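Quick log. Single chain, no ligands specified.
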Amino acid sequence: MAEVPLVCDFGWKGIDAILPGVDGNEHQLSEHVGPGGLVVAFICNHCPYVKAVIDRIVRDARDLSAHGIGFVAINSNDADAYPEDSFENMKAFSRQHGMTFPYLHDEDQSIARAYGAACTPDFFGFNADMRLQYRGRLDASRREKGPADLRRDLYEAMVEIAQTGEGPREQVASVGCSIKWKDGGDWA
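-> predicted structure:
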């Protein structure tokens, strides 16, 4: 079922956490904030919305690093109910798509709940002070990959944030599969 997250809560202070990564290391979110900011992306392995754009996510993470912007992806889905989203499968998914950024496991779903993550993909763009400035889409792709010339909403917003510390006031929400909560229902 498609889910649409809330609009950007400008200035909201991002929650720090330490989560295990598919690289075998523990990652503290705050250690990945670059001088231009940080993107925290909630994704998973099985969602058709993520599958349609994963190569673009990898591209944008790489391109944003040139602007001093860190990038982490977090999988918070219930892997018992959705085995394709297991930690072992996250490792394979990361390798398959050449992820150069930390892919982290939020097994107890506490970080997704703290962030108010609603769907996969769900993007949170922070400035260098870890203040939220973007909560929008990657681009106009949905369940199918869009044309190559789509406007790069996340990339352009994050470059603006790196340059000014503030995100665009007009943002289009991401759309994707709902987070698969362990209790089977909405946490809100």
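The beta strands are 2-3, 18-20, 26-28, 37-42, 69-75, 103-105, 119-120, 122-126, 132-134, 176-178.
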